[in-house]
């Protein structure tokens, strides 16, 4: 049942007016009345998004906790990237909760190899542990054991929730993502609707002021914000189990956040989803078929027009014109490192860093700025980096198994759309690999687990 019922709407709305009013007054006192009005609107929208999340049917506390831990870890990773103890504190709490939920831990373990998503997000931690041992990187190997154990517990927690509640956990996970979006707007209400935004004081934040991150102390990478925005729309909008206003509210939320963060990878993800959606809908409703494309066209124009899809965000750092904004340079570095690796590392994964990040000197133009630890921004290269040749094979096998499950007749429509649409994201992101803040991975894992081990309803088909 929803946590926000009709009896609680008025008190919730009044509380929202108080919160938004306070945000507007604070900003007006610090800046001017125009800034105060923008802060009021941003905070009011953020509060309304939280209300939308709490109004969704099918919510469970444990589903919200699972989604909250994953999106929360991602937010803290960006907010406190120079203070890893903060992030590890949340991860320790996450591990403790999941360990308590899943005890005895062997009960559901045999189910994991039957899930494609489990292979996508877990295999490379196990393989990478051996890769680090072959590279004599004992610390990295130990760290990968911890990371791998944490995410195995996360996967087992999903299975345990399904077994104990007999409820689909994905609405609650999507609601947790919605709550995160609302909180980001609340924390960033003072800059959300401005031209320039608060950014982290690291190499990641340089030249990124035009994209919304959240507020000081509560920041999330724009591409990650965009991802959960699209996931919310994909989980809620196609599903007739939700009320029409909830479905359109999810679409509106996604549209607003994508407009604020201007993520081309997420735009492509949404475009792929719109094409798959059109395949199912074009014979039933022309209007429902066209709405996603109209929204995507409006997003492209609002983000800067067709040229926005091909411009380089970091021309000086990468040299020349790189339409991938430095990604190709990162991939080249992955290949160079792979060639230099030992045979054991080639098979099981690079041992330089526990999370498989990449460091390249030309990532920043200022030699006095420490180069950031880059993600591979490509799931194929990410699997190679983290799990070696065997990691790539595990990734491809897991992807095939996930798609097979997602395209079966009894698969929920939103799951089919999301799984197929995620395939093009392999080229420019490592979202399918999960990890800290692995929001796409945990939602797909939960959907696949519910289909295989729960009692899926077909109301959205």
Keywords:
17 helices, two-stranded antiparallel sheet, 2 strands, 461 residues, disordered C terminus, 1% strand, mainly alpha
Please give a structural write-up.
With 461 residues, this protein is mainly alpha-helical. It has one domain. 64% of the residues lie in helices and 1% in strands. The protein contains 17 helices and two strands. Strands 1-2 form a two-stranded antiparallel sheet. Helix 6 crosses helix 17, helix 7 runs antiparallel to helix 17 and helix 9 packs parallel to helix 11. The longest helix is centred in the N-terminal third of the chain and has 28 residues. The C terminus is likely disordered.
Overall number of strands: 2
Task: Look at the structure and give the mean pLDDT.
Answer: 90
Tertiary shape:
globular
Structural class: mainly alpha
Order of helices and strands: HHHHHHHEEHHHHHHHHHH
Strand content: under 5%
Quickly count the domains: 1
* Radius of gyration from the alpha-carbon trace, in angstroms: 22 Å
Helix count equals 17
Question: Segments where pLDDT lies below 50 for 5+ residues?
Answer: 316-320, 457-461
Biggest sheet details: 2 strands, antiparallel
- Head-to-tail CA distance between termini: 21 Å
Q: Can you list the strand order of the major beta sheet?
A: 1-2
What proportion of the residues is helical, as a percent range?
55-70%
């Amino acid at each position: 049942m929803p946590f926000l019922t009709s009896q609680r709407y008025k008190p919730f709305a009044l509380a929202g007016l108080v919160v938004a009013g306070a945000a507007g007054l604070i900003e007006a006192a610090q800046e001017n009345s125009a800034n105060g009005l923008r802060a009021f609107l941003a905070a009011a929208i953020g509060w309304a998004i939280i209300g939308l999340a709490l109004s969704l049917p099918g919510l469970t506390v444990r589903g919200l906790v699972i989604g909250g831990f994953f999106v929360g870890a991602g937010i803290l990773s960006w907010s406190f990237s120079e203070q890893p103890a903060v992030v590890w504190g949340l991860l320790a709490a996450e591990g403790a909760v999941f360990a308590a939920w899943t005890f005895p831990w062997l009960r559901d373990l045999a189910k994991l190899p039957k899930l494609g998503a489990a292979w996508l997000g877990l295999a490379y931690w196990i393989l990478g542990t051996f890769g680090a041992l072959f590279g004599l990187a004992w610390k990295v190997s130990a760290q990968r054991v911890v990371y791998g154990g944490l995410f195995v517990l996360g996967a087992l927690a999903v299975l345990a929730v399904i077994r104990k509640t007999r409820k689909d956990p994905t609405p609650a996970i999507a609601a947790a993502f919605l709550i995160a979006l609302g909180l980001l707007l609340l924390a960033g209400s003072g800059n959300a609707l401005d031209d320039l935004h608060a950014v982290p004081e690291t190499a990641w934040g340089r030249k990124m002021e035009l994209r919304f991150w959240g507020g000081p102390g509560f920041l999330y990478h724009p591409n990650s914000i965009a991802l959960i925005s699209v996931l919310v729309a994909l989980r809620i909008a196609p599903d007739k189990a939700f009320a029409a206003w909830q479905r359109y509210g999810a679409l509106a939320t996604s549209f607003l956040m994508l407009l604020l963060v201007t993520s081309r990878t997420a735009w492509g993800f949404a475009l792929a989803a719109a094409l798959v959606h059109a395949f199912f809908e074009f014979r039933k409703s022309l209007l429902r078929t066209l709405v996603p494309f109209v929204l995507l066209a409006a997003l492209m124009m609002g983000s800067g027009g067709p040229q926005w899809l091909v411009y380089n965000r970091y021309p000086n750092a990468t040299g020349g014109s790189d339409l991938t904004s430095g990604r190709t340079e990162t991939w080249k570095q992955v290949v160079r490192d792979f060639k230099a690796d030992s045979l054991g590392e080639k098979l099981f994964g690079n041992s330089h860093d526990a999370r498989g990040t990449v460091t390249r000197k030309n990532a920043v133009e200022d030699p006095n700025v420490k180069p950031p630890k880059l993600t591979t921004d490509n799931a194929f290269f990410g699997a190679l980096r983290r799990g070696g040749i065997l990691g790539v094979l595990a990734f491809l096998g897991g992807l095939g198994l996930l798609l097979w499950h997602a395209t079966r007749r009894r698969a929920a429509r939103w799951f089919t759309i999301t799984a197929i649409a995620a395939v093009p994201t392999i080229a420019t992101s490592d979202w399918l690999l999960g990890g800290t803040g692995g929001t796409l991975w945990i939602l797909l894992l939960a959907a696949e687990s519910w289909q295989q081990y729960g009692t899926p309803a077909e109301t959205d088909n």
